[in-house]
Target: Fe2OG dioxygenase domain-containing protein
Amino acid sequence: MAPVPVSPISVGHIDDVQELRKTIPSRIPQRFVRDGIERPRLFMTNPTPCKNIPVIDLSNLQKGSKDEFRAELLQLSASCEDWGFFQVINHGVNLSLVESLEKVAMEFFMLPLEEKQKYPMLPGTVQGYGQAFVFSEDQKLDWCNMFALGLEPHFIRNPNLWPTKPATFSETLEAYSREIRKLCKNLLKYIAIGLSLDENVFEDMFGAAVQAVRMNYYPACPRPDLVLGLSPHSDGSALTVLQQGKGSSVGLQIFKDNTWVPVQPIPNALVINIGDTIEVLTNGRYKSVEHRAVTHREKDRLSIVTFYAPSYDLEVGPMPELVDENEPCKYRRYNHGEYSKNYVTNKLRGKKALEFAKINTTN
Ligand SMILES: O=C(O)CCC(=O)C(=O)O
Ligand SMILES: [Fe+2]
Model:
């Protein structure tokens, strides 16, 4: 008898959160219920005054006066250093494209489960529909459905992706991804200038940059105080671009000064965050900040996230210009492909992924 292939990863049964909502709307299976300290504290009686993440106006960098340019560049550098997050306005990404992508993404999530499961996210992979980063039966699950696609190094049109809607879905995603790519290149140029580096340093270094997109759909949850939409993590990318669905609930939170700060969406803005790769390249000057998503009792939420990263061949390590006696080298050199593999073969675990690269300085 031929041996039955056994997957080395046993993840147990994973409930689809949208189906749970339909069948038993009030039930939250135990696998979604977080332990006490992990639970989001959503109903604080006296919340700390809300700090908002900085806003960058790209048009000031692209066509502002000298003074506007200088002020915006300072604001960009400070955002990357102090927050690792900012919202960008006047970003140049076609807004009707943004809306169209949101529409096709929602159409996808509203398909019957059997349709969506034609592109299953297999255990240990981060592509397709389902839950990513699940590696064991006792791991808590996120209140989220994901649809993730790699678009590397350039978007490859795949007619099998969504057979009933190949044209709209593929074309919209392709056009959107091209614009997001342009935005990332632009932002990296200004980030380099702000660090007093050559403006092309990242583009030249990154080679054929890898781009991946993840659509996260968070259905409303009857007990948002018990679950997380997405576990705390930092992104393995160089830069991440996040678009929140129009009318979505506030869901993204970033970990700043020991508290979880909600990101209040600004209409037509995109949220940008520094990923682990830029943290390493800048020797820790720019931070890849831990973030998570929470759910809402009545409202659902969609986020569309693009990860922009160097070619897998790149050897990554702190840039010599950012290492000196005051800022000794904090990370070792490593191959970016290996880093990515390590990232996707572990569960999301705060900033732990970066330990792969950290040099232990115990003095
Ligand atoms: O949905 C969100 O706001 C967070 C998404 C995110 O952090 C991710 O997909 O990496
Ligand atoms: Fe993220």
